[in-house]
Give the backbone structure.
Amino acid sequence: MKYKYILLIDDDEDDQVIFMSGIRAVSKTAVCRCMFNAKEALEELEKGEITPEVIFLDLNMPLMNGQQFLVEIKKRESLRKIPIIIFSTSSNKRTIDTLLELGADNFITKPGRYEDLVSILKESII
Amino acid sequence: MITDSNQRANIFLNGESEMTKLVNEKDWSQTPIGNINTWPASLKSLVGTMLENPFPTYLAWGKYHTQIYNDGYIPILGSLKHPTALGQSTQDTFSEHWEIVSGMFDQVLAGKPIIIKDGHYQLHRNGYLEDCYFDFAYSPIRIEDGTIEGVLVTVMETTNQKKAIDSLTESESRFKLMAENSDILIALSDESGKALFFNKAWEELTGKKTEDLNNTRMLKLLHADQLKEFTSNIKTAISTHESWSGEYQFLNRTGEYSWLLVRGAARFNLDQSFAGHVISAMDITQRKFSEQKLRDSEKLMKSIIEASPFPISVLFGDDLKVEFANEAIIAAWGKGDDVIGKNFKNVLPELANQGVFEQLEGVRESGLPSLSKPQRVEMNMHGKKEVKYYNISFNPIKNESEQIIGIFNSGVDVTDLVLSKQKIEEAEAKARLAIDSAEQGVYEFTYATSEFIMDRRFHEICGFNNPISLERYRNLIHPEDIPTRAEAHKRSFDTGRVNYQVRIVIDDGSIRWVRVTGRIIYGSDQIPVKLTGMIQDITLMILAQQKIEESERTIRNMVLQAPVAMCILRGNDYIVEIANKKMIELWGLKDDKIIGKAIFEGIPEARAQGLEELLEGVASTGNRFVANERPILLPRDGKLEQVYLNFVYEPIGQKTGDKADIMAIAIDVTPQVRARKEIEVVIKERTDDLAKAITDLRRSNEDLAQFAYIASHDLQEPIRKITSFSEMLQNHLGNQLDDLSVTFLEKIINASTRMSKLVRDVLTYSETGKKSEEFIPVNLNKILKDVVTDFDLLIEQKEATIILDELPEIEGIPLQMTQLFGNLISNALKFSSKTNSPLIEIKVGKADMTETILVPLYRDIPYIHIQIRDNGIGFLPAYGEQIFNIFQRLHRKTDFAGTGIGLSMCKKIVQNHQGEINSKGSSESGAVFNIFLPYRQSSND
């Protein structure tokens, strides 16, 4: 599945920069929006102000973390269908299992090397 | 609807049967035999007869065997064939059997009738399916001129007969079977006496096969002498219709005669005609033999008993009749000769109140023989009257089935025994009498006349048979004791009594102790007139006393010389009779003033510590008391100290009714006890320390693990960013960079990548040894094979050979085992020589624990020794231990990649499994790694 309109929710500025760069390297036409705050993101999604095709979701975030966001978004009829890809440093099996059970579509561990990120994104970004 | 043509001709077809109707209604012109009115007269009359005949009948007429049959035949045809069969050809109706049938028909049509007997049909009759049997008769049908035109089949049902015959056959065979298996001999003969049947038992007896016997007349086997009787029995049976029995001898296989108990009866037919004999017989040879033996032995026994001088009788039956009594017992009983047949109890009623009859009953019930007390019997022996004593014995007589059939009664002469016992008793009584009166002798001395009279005992005591003079008496006295006597006499003038104890020397030189007592009888003016008194031989008493004194002295010495503390306490107050130096010391006393005092007076500090009760217990019960390391407060250097004593209270010299004296033996074990207690304290402290240390260690391990976990995670993040941004920078600047810049950036990227791996390795390392992992049975073969598979590519690239021994299963953590072997094989492949292709050998064997520094955790768990050897570049032996240090590398990063954590990981894993790893390297022949691992992680003990 290749997506064009992407939402990244990650509280780390550097990670956002890296991600965006990666997207740019892979596609000229894909559009990516980054948000720092999961709660805000949820609100905007509910209001319909933002309509992504896919959400890349970090886990370790203050106020509302990735798991909480996942649970909340899956409760909403209108938003439930949006594919969620967990994008996190963790590689803990139990965490992965839990999130997949909660409805995440995929789990990607943040790669150590930039070029690895690029190849991962190549798979899914138009 | 009866056709006209049929009607005209069918006056004879008048019956009411179903077949009559069908025949009438049928259009016969369609059949080969044509209309009825064209039928020959014989056919018409035959059909008419057949139709009215209740028995199943059927005919097949003409060339085409056209069938006509009656009602009775319908069930035989069956519902499938009827009514089509009427007017049809036999060939069509019985097409399936036609081959056979036509053969038969041909024969019949040729003039030969056929009978088929007992044809089996299953017919529906009376509501259920029955097995039926029929006789079929096939006969030719001739017309007027004699030619055969058809086949007539008449049927006779034989079901009942067949059934009867069948059951007869069945019961016959059942009978035969029973007879064959019986041990009883069974024979059947016919009316002429010819043998019909001998069962197998006869074979056993005669040795001839039953087939042969069947041809022999049974009578031939009978003993000649008995032939007459036997035959008369048989004859009589025929007329009386009664059975007979008798014992007869028959010739057996050994050529001798066996005794058979024979029972016979005549058999009769229904019409009462004689049908033959049936004989059954049982071999009673053994019984007969033993009967004879019994009679013989009875005779023998009788003659033995008769001749015996011992009184013997045999009592038979519940009423104990005297079956037999020999002369000796008749004489002993003294009741006359006429005792045979009388009841034992009636013959000797005087035994009634002596327990003898009860004894007899007891023998009968229990089956055990018994012997009575001696019974006094007055006997006439050889004309003299004598008193004799007998122990009366009763022995049960049993038959083969262990039943008691009689009592064997005999007497044992114990007269001498009894009489001598009596003598002894008399002598004892006399002696006692003598002893009682043995001691005192009496004397009298008259002062005025110096007359000295004595009784017999007196001079006997002095060893004389006749009275002696005072002079004589005085001279008897032991020289040493003369003063004693003198003293006593002097005293007597004051007290009026004489009392002294002296030794006297008897003529034969022996010494006796005597006690002399006396009373002065005064005259009217208080002048002594007479001295009367007694003398007593107290030698034994004195000797006994001396002995006692001697043993007391011995004990005393023993106590004084003992190497342990000992004392003797006497009496209710536990007076210290004697105590040795050690005991005085133990009591904490400075001197032996306590001797002669009551113990608790001498050591008041010892009171109220339970010792009084213990002593009391020992003294009264006479049971020894042992104490071990008992703490007691005793004075030591003026202070009360708790000392530990092992001691024993031993009762001694207990006189009946009195309390025993007590000997106490004690050892001061205070030093040992103190030392031991100290050790115990130390051990406890150490144990506590150890427990605490373990807890601390565990906690710090957990802290460490947690720290490592967090650190590695947190460290990963900036590392990742460094790497990523460096790459992005590289991409971004692209060809704007000069070579040097590119190199710099690459170095940054490489360094941070390495750091990332390092952090990950540290994390893995720290996680090894977490106790949360469970030990399970691990198949090392599988682990190794998987590891080798992982390195497939590299192995191929390097053309490496890996030789694996068969590895066992051990208890371990699978993931860690994989890491262990993974690291070692990875190293072996990595550090291969440039010239040779790598050869890696993994060998396994039982561990020689001397090659390790391991202390096995459990004694019963053996260790395995795995050795990994390669032919690579090896390492200098000096580095053998160092290489296991974390991050330790022997080469530059550029020559061989790796963080240097691999071997330290291996070491940690092996240690986690209570094992050990060491290495032997050489720069010539490669590296050798020895791994020692236990088979199990926990003991079965």
User: Anything to note?
Assistant: Residues 594 and 601 of chain B are 8 Å apart (CA to CA). The longest strand of chain B covers residues 128-142. Chain B touches chain A through 16 residues (CB under 8 Å). Residues 431-435 of chain B have pLDDT under 50 and may be disordered.
